[in-house]
Write a structure and sequence with these properties.
310 residues; mainly alpha; AhpD-like; 2 domains; 16 helices
Length: 310
């Protein structure tokens, strides 16, 4: 899923959903506020029969509702991709209705061609935006089928899905709750990638003898951290550059409950910002939950820390 600030393609996807949201909202408001003016403004509508202000306003409400949902989704498209799907649902069904009508001869091909940009274009743009995110795996896991998430976990680190099977089998929608929780450990907006992942891996190594650390290391590679830097982190961080060593030590101090976390955190805040300190603190605190959960489920055994690399 997405880690760090949105890149160019992320912004393209966000813009597409935002544009369709604005179009749907304004189009719907036009129908609601002035249904007869809307009726005469769209040439092909006249061919469908006499105007009915009540039905025009009904359709306007549907358009405006889709617009509101899509605008909500566009503000955080990576986490709210399911809202974007919901916002595009009625627009898609509306487009399918137009396809059906031309296919059975209810409307002429000329009318369909004239309507197609405004009817089929908006939902297709939303689906194009979501395709950009899905292909690049830039969405939150919440909402994905369990099998898809389990496969992604195994692809990232084979064999690490064992504890997730327990989560998936637990009652009370535990799996869905876990999927909403997981992105918090990956939140990076202001922090440099190497600094962030140094703190993340440092905290993980305190709790874990290997598997979770490798998962964290693979996440660092996916976020653009150099392989040699990642391996230095996995080796204990002693030869890391000064800034990355600061993040690594901070992660370990947070994970061990050391009083040094205060002094190191103050240095990070002074050198970078309060936001960076927050992001490092949050990932160091949350990433510990995964090895702790496996330990609680009896899925890990005592072992000594050994040399690891990716």
């Amino acid at each position: 899923m997405q880690t760090g600030k949105p890149d160019f393609l992320d912004r393209i996807a966000q813009f597409l959903v935002l544009a369709v949201g604005l179009f749907s909202l304004l189009f719907g408001l036009f129908m609601i506020i002035s249904p007869l003016d809307w009726y005469t403004a769209i040439p092909t509508v006249i061919t469908t029969g006499p105007p009915n202000k009540h039905f025009i306003r009904d359709i306007g409400i549907a358009y405006a509702t889709c617009g509101f949902i899509l605008l909500y989704a566009s503000a955080n498209i990576h986490m709210r991709w399911m809202a974007a799907l919901a916002g595009a649902l009625w627009l898609s069904l509306h487009g399918i209705l137009h396809i059906y009508e031309v296919s059975v001869g209810i409307c002429s091909p000329d009318v369909f061609v004239a309507d197609a940009p405004g009817v089929l274009g908006p939902p297709l743009l939303v689906f194009a935006a979501l395709a950009i995110l899905f292909v690049r795996q830039r969405i939150a896991p919440a909402g994905l089928p369990k099998k898809a998430v389990m496969k992604a976990v195994d692809n990232l680190n084979p064999g690490e899905s064992e504890y997730m099977k327990d989560v998936a089998a637990a009652p009370g929608h535990a799996f869905e709750k876990m999927m909403h929780f997981s992105p918090a450990a990956n939140h990076r907006h202001a922090a440099p990638a190497a600094l962030f992942h140094a703190a993340r891996i440092g905290a993980t190594l305190i709790e874990d003898c290997g598997p979770c650390a490798i998962t964290a290391a693979n996440g660092a590679l996916a976020d653009g951290v150099q392989k040699d830097q990642v391996n230095q982190m996995l080796a204990g961080g002693s030869v890391l550059a000064e800034d990355e060593k600061l993040g690594f030590d901070f992660g370990q101090a947070v994970a061990t409950g050391s009083a040094e976390a205060f002094a190191i955190g103050d240095r990070i805040e002074a050198q970078y910002s309060r936001d960076v300190r927050f992001e490092l603190a949050m990932t160091a605190a949350i990433v510990r939950s995964y090895p702790a959960m496996k330990r609680g489920l009896g899925l890990t055994k005592a072992c000594s820390l050994t040399s690891m690399e990716v």
